[in-house]
Amino acid sequence: MDTSSWGTRTERLVVVGGGQAAVQLIEVARHKGFEGRITLVSEEPLLPYQRPPLSKQYLMGTCGPDWLLYRPERFYERYAVDLRLGRRVVAIDRRAGRVTLADGGLLGYEKLALATGARSRRLAVPGSEGGRVWHIRTRADVDGLRSQLRSARKVVIIGGGFIGLETAAVLSQTGVEITLLVAGSQLIPRVVGADMMEFLMDQHRQHGVRIELHAVVTALEQGREGGFAVCLGDGRRFEADLVLAGIGALPNVELAQEAGLDCDDGIVVDELARTSDPAIVAAGDCTNHPNGLIRRRLRLETVHNAVEQGRTAGATIAGIELPYVQTPWVWSDQYQLRLQSVGIADGYDQTVWRGDAGAGRFSLFYFRAGELLAVNCINQPLVFGAVRRLLNERIALAPAEAADAGFDLSRRLPSKARLDFDVPWPARSARRQAAIAWGFE
């Protein structure tokens, strides 16, 4: 590939944000023909890095900072990216086509990409002020947390989402006493149903994690043993040397809102990652996008969403239409388990088991009126791969077929020999549109 022309045109793309969506956007924009200047502005003083390992490998100390990097430093040199690290964009002037930095600097743009991500939702109860509660969102968060963990014997984790569960799984293996407090009656409610929740709770309890449901935190007080006491609305108290909150995230939309862009639980974009301003795209955790496969708009905080929507946004910058229409999926590593989930199970009326829960290798299928909505897989990557394609291609699967471990799920998938390239573009599935556009078929 001839890269000599990259960065030689006067047209400038400014990318705001330093996560995976931002880097994926830049890479695809270049490969799809954008030869203008690219400036990446990131508030963190670090090269863009992966966040999922923060609550797992990085917290455990089994990987270093360089391992976290999404792309090495030479990537930005090769792709002719002007890095402005440790800098913050404070305003967008859409009429003038420029952004203002916190230090007063100005950057003009012809095209602007917002990949501003999300921030940890803060625990707002009496006694939680002054850095008493830790969160996991940045590398600096985990660096500070690790230093405090050296002297901690009891840790209270607030929140039953992926951050809470993954952190509990890591810390329980270090001999620390863990209590996990969940405000409602369900772990990761947007991802798993009651049966899968019971399985996950059992795994954590076997590793010594104490889980308390319906645990609404109302205050932090001085503990009897010198640390903190996490106080619940029903009067229960839990002593802790360290308190960690994983109670969700808020999209960073303030910059877009102040610029007059449409926002509604995220920056509103279309299937091509375009905002309400045709010169501005957005991608990643900060966006609210349409998904025709599940027939609703949604905001996702997943690696898959950041990468795939970043690709779409990069293609749009280069003038290529590559719609982002894929069934949402996510994964989580806890102990020796890999949970992979695809689809949205809202409104399911039937669940079907496949495999052996006792052996730690099984899947749970969610149906509504006989239609497959979603699947949770535990240590069954081949099942996950097959059902992800089934959902992306809108291929029907009967509950009896899902339950039959001897039924080859790939039988429902179209063979490459049967693909019809003469089908009009609008009639092709989203997955095939993307495959053809990228030259994979």
Written description of the protein model:
By secondary structure, this protein is of the alpha/beta class. The protein has 3 domains: 9-119 and 250-317, FAD/NAD(P)-binding domain; 133-247, FAD/NAD(P)-binding domain (3-Layer(bba) Sandwich); 336-432, Enolase-like, domain 1 (2-Layer Sandwich). The chain contains 12 helices and 26 strands. The chain has helices at 20-31, 57-60, 65-68, 73-78, 139-149, 162-172, 194-206, 254-258, 303-317, 381-393, 399-403, 430-437, and strands spanning 9-16, 36-42, 81-85, 89-93, 98-101, 106-108, 111-114, 118-120, 133-134, 154-158, 177-181, 210-212, 217-222, 228-232, 237-240, 242-245, 249-251, 267-268, 280-282, 287-291, 296-298, 329-334, 337-343, 350-356, 361-368, 371-378. A 5-stranded parallel β-sheet has the order 3-2-1-7-19. A 5-stranded parallel β-sheet has the order 9-16-10-11-12. The chain has a 5-stranded antiparallel β-sheet with strand order 22-23-26-25-24. Strand 20 (287-291) and strand 21 form a beta hairpin. The chain is globular and about 60 Å long. It starts with 8 loop residues before the first strand and ends with a helix. Mean pLDDT is 91; it is low at 416-441.
What labels would you give this structure?
441 residues; alpha/beta; Enolase-like, domain 1; 3 domains; 5-stranded parallel sheet; 12 helices; 26 strands
Please render the helix and strand layout as text.
Layout (H helix, E strand, L loop, with lengths): L8 E8 L3 H12 L4 E7 L14 H4 L4 H4 L4 H6 L2 E5 L3 E5 L4 E4 L4 E3 L2 E4 L3 E3 L12 E2 L4 H11 L4 E5 L3 H11 L4 E5 L12 H13 L3 E3 L4 E6 L5 E5 L4 E4 L1 E4 L3 E3 L2 H5 L8 E2 L11 E3 L4 E5 L4 E3 L4 H15 L11 E6 L2 E7 L6 E7 L4 E8 L2 E8 L2 H13 L5 H5 L26 H8 L4
Parallel strand pairs: 1-2, 1-7, 2-3, 7-19, 9-16, 10-11, 10-16, 11-12, 18-20
Antiparallel strand pairs: 4-5, 5-6, 8-17, 13-14, 14-15, 20-21, 22-23, 23-26, 24-25, 25-26
Helix pairs in contact: 1-9
